[in-house]
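Build the 3D complex.
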Amino acid sequence: MPDRRYWLFKTEPSCFSFIDLQHRPGGTDHWDGVRNYQARNYLRDEVQVGDQILFYHSNIAEPAIIGIAEVVKAGYPDWTARDPQGEHFDPNSTVAKPIWFMVDVRYVRPLPRPVTLAELKTVPALAGMVLLSRSRLSIQPVRAEEWRLILRLGGVHK
DNA sequence: GCCAACGTTGGC
DNA sequence: GCCAACGTTGGC
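Done.
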């Protein structure tokens, strides 16, 4: 578990975008509102400080990985679950027994060339990506080989 | 806007 | 604990 280092975080840009993250103080914000148990488990148990994130925009004309972010704070209780006014309220979640978790992430850099979903589908080495088989999962592990290849496709050269 | 896939809920 | 109904997601 501690040696997983790469993730894909999915978001609808109309809700929260990569540019929104860039404009937060320090390019940093909490990743709240995840209400799926498998994604919650990743946030609570596996996502660690320093892990690298592919930032994916969904539910748009051309869904794509558009940038890189990193984890700056590991999982802690998602307090938006306790805000009755908020969109992500869950009356079953309490301070003593939180159900939902979030992490803090920081903007790192955009990909010089976004890598679209359509393009990902054409690359045989990426056929095993979680994104292609379980597209609805909002927090997904990414293998190191996949990470390197996607960055290369995105025009990032070391 | 449609619809398929999938996660959640709730009756039994 | 099964499974049908229902709600949500997200590509197209």
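The helical segments of chain A are 18-22, 37-46, 117-122, 130-133, 144-153.
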